[in-house]
Amino acid sequence: MTNTIFDFVGDTVGDWKVSSMTTIKGNSLASVSHLSKVPKKELVQTETGIWTLKGIISNLRYTEKEDKDKLAAVQQDLDRANSTLAAFIPIRKSEAWWNLAQDERRKIMENKSRHTQTGMKYLPAIARKLFHSRDIGEPFDFLTWFEYAPADADAFEELLDALRKTEEWNYVEREIDIRLVKSI
Amino acid sequence: MTNTIFDFVGDTVGDWKVSSMTTIKGNSLASVSHLSKVPKKELVQTETGIWTLKGIISNLRYTEKEDKDKLAAVQQDLDRANSTLAAFIPIRKSEAWWNLAQDERRKIMENKSRHTQTGMKYLPAIARKLFHSRDIGEPFDFLTWFEYAPADADAFEELLDALRKTEEWNYVEREIDIRLVKSI
């Protein structure tokens, strides 16, 4: 069975070396020099380290059939040998976002912000994975993870810039941008 | 802050006395005489007892604006003084269900199975709460909870019967029906 529970451990050692850590919005996180993404069997186990953020892989909650099939055809898994750069961006959205109904959230994400379309433009170069945290009482709602080769670093900045300009991003109230270089 | 993490503890003592326990589909659960619904501050704390099932309250994942407003207008909270009967029905859906896209799942739930409409007919008499378990590595996907007065017991059977006849229910692969009487 594929692992669905992960601890993201900020520490003084780890699989990824932190190249920068920027608080985009809201409270910051303690500085760390390294980060590891550790698969867990159970939620009750917790890694130590300077801090640990927990996230779980869930089913896609907004993606419709047509986009789901397109994504499946083009996206690639994490851990590609040439993906030596990564970005770990924990995000929390506002209560106003969570008080919206499913169709209202989807309208803002897709019709207005074209979230899936934008991400798709950068596939398979920028591999992405979304980890859910809100429902398990964590400080962030989502832990977003991106992996790419150095040659695609500019494309990644373009993708991130496009996402941050969307209407959806008005609902983001905390965001920390942590850039990583593979250290093993 | 409202609690969103709950342990459902099956044991020899507890807040609710088990009046019946029926395995509708899939593997059974060990028999217990009592059940308690215990709010938790963190996921890592776990009650003991004969068994414990964990569930978390999340945002509504299918309900659209119009239905969300209608529900908010008519539904009542749990723990009403005259709600001395309850049903605790843990459910797991099949991989086929979870492999569907958001719009496919919604179509089966609402257009074909009229899940929300059916539940709404029995409001405010039958108070309902959905606890999510799938994403936290639990044996069930959902823990469903219903509370009602003895005078509404027939209405509850009617609601349950209607839900079990829907296309949505074809995707249920494990279901345990536990009926409860308030013991405190």
Question: How do you describe this structure in short?
Answer:
With 184 residues, the first copy, chain A, is an alpha+beta fold. Chain A is 24% helix and 34% strand. The two termini of chain A are 25 Å apart.
Give a written overview of the molecule.
Two copies of one chain form a homodimer. By secondary structure, the first copy, chain A, is α+β, with helices and mostly antiparallel strands. Helices cover 24% and strands 34% of the residues of chain A. Chain A contains five helices and eight strands. Chain A has helices at residues 65-74, 95-98, 102-112, 115-121, 153-164, and strands at residues 5-11, 16-25, 34-40, 51-56, 85-93, 127-132, 142-148, 172-182. Chain A has an eight-stranded antiparallel sheet with strand order 4-1-3-2-8-5-7-6. In chain A, strand 2 and strand 3 form a beta hairpin. The longest helix of chain A is centred in the last third of the chain and has 12 residues, at 153-164. Chain A starts with a strand and ends with a strand. The mean pLDDT of chain A is 92. The A-B interface holds A 4-5, 41-44, 46, 56, 58-65, 67-68, 98, 100-104, 106, 132, 134-137 and B 4-5, 41-44, 46, 56, 58-65, 67-68, 98, 100-104, 106, 132, 134-137.
